TrEMBL record:
Principal place of residence: membrane
Protein known as: Protein-tyrosine-phosphatase
Keywords associated with the record: ATP-binding, Cell membrane, Membrane, Nucleotide-binding, Transmembrane, Transmembrane helix, Transport
Domain ABC transporter: 363-597
Highest taxon of source: Bacteria
Homology family: Belongs to the ABC transporter superfamily. Lipid exporter (TC 3.A.1.106) family.
Naturally occurring in which organism (per UniProt): Cellulomonas pakistanensis
GO molecular function, one term: ATP hydrolysis activity
InterPro entries: AAA+_ATPase (IPR003593), ABC1_TM_dom (IPR011527), ABC1_TM_sf (IPR036640), ABC_transporter-like_ATP-bd (IPR003439), ABC_transporter-like_CS (IPR017871), P-loop_NTPase (IPR027417), Type_1_exporter (IPR039421)
GO cellular component terms given for this protein: plasma membrane
Amino acid sequence: MSGRERPAGLREAVPGLRRTLRQLRPHIREQRTLIAGGGAALLAEVAMRLLEPWPLKWVLDAVVVAAGADLAVRRPDDLGTLLLLASVGVVVVVLLRAAASYLMTVAFALAGNRVLTRVRAEVYAHLHRLSLAFHDSSRTGDLVTRVTGDVGRLQEATVTALLPLLGNVVTLVGMLVVIAVLDLQLALVVLLVFPLFAVSGVRLTRRISAVSRGQRKAEGALASLATESLSSMKVVQAYSLERPMQEAFGGDNERSLTEGVQAKKLSAGLERTTDALVGLATGVVLYVGAQRVLAGALTPGELVVFLTYLKTAFKPLRDIAKYTGRIAKAAASGERIVDVLQTRPDLVDRSWARPAPRFRGDVRFEGVHLSYAPGHPVLRGLDLTVRPGERVAVVGPSGSGKSSLVSLLSRLRDPDDGRVLLDGHDVRDLTIDSVREQVAVVLQESVLFATSIRDNIAYGRPGATEEEVVAAARLAGADGFVRRLPRGYDTVVGERGSTLSGGQRQRIAIARAALRDAPVVILDEALTGLDGETEAEVVAALGRLTRGRTTFVITHDLDAARDCDRVVRVEDGRAREVAQARAAAPAREAEREGRDAVAR
């Protein structure tokens, strides 16, 4: 994900905020009723906040007059009634303000949480649409951090910073209008402090934003390292890598801490700078305001209102400093989210793509070229034809493009040039999902999810009945051992199926492929790493799975190709037929026995 130039204006103060809001706009529109209600409650809350000091003003002016102060104010006819009304007024205003504040908080928080819940789902779904090339070049832990941590931080900032900031800004504007009406000269004195706040705020906020981006990047690297090491614990412990892993984690952890402390220091500096400016403004206003009272231009009550507003108005400024730091951090998270959402999938359905018909399994590769990086081709004009129901072994050295070849069938990738045809249809003219539904894959590492065995099999064809799931398990030779488990098909396997043996995982994967009932089957090193007895069981299950289906057996071992109709070797980006596999099997068996005799 490439960097971009820093924006100007508000975008310079809070980098990425506008970009994030632009991405969220469609979701925000869906919550416009809640947002409008929250806005109305916000205005009511601000109005009550503006009214709060006025009962005190009326009482103070009345008491001063009653005490005989020589000020140009009207003496109230009934001071006791005024005191009672003012006291009741204070209570009513505070209660109304509390109610409005509650409604505002609930409405905005509900709208914000709904928006960001949808954004999290959108990011998660978008990651599933991105190509294998994207995921191969990304770190899983960092992507997980974006889906969970970054969206969570944005969600938290919306409730704890953005909404209070909005309320404070509206309050600040309202108070400035009122104090300007009360005494324009004194209001201008207050406004002299604002440029100082703006200069210091923008400078520090820019630095907070930069540090926050670094902190989120460091946290992503930390999550990636933790994910990699914890998911590879067997290798870590087998090679005694605990200390190197801990040292690497400690380094990333320290970098994250350093960035976090720096961000906190900058945020604290911004808040304390604001406190100093508030103190300066209060002292100036108190001095000038007292002179205005003595001159008769202001009443004592109006000066109290002025000072109350000043304190209340500068509290939002101090809070703005605090909230701006949070929003700057959230904006850094928002940019990471937007980076994902604006990454375009390499594979998309063409505008004229149509659902695929049920295939017979006739497969043709015509002049196929494929590169993972410019100037590094994997396939160079490859041609290959496979008839329906034919079983073809694809062999070749590691990195020759065997798996890349068959990945084109299920449209995990599209060729740079040439065509891949299924029953005469260019797969790019068909919808991606409809092509993938007719290709079943069994991999070397059978990936199972941390859910029940029933669900793991049913992923082959969502919506399958219980009877169909059990039938697929029987075909794969898995029904027997599954029923011996304490909870049978309801048994929850560990992460990636870690609670099952390799052979058991492989048979569950075969059952999943069998349930798919696809005309094309891909076996990608499906027998690698299995012991002799387990391999025999899996071979039998694979034989039942592939009967009558077009099958590609990806392997580096010619012995694994003995039951195939043909053997095709992929090398230097091209395919050439090695032999009729079944005819060559006796010769390979004799060769193997000869090697065993020499070894003995």
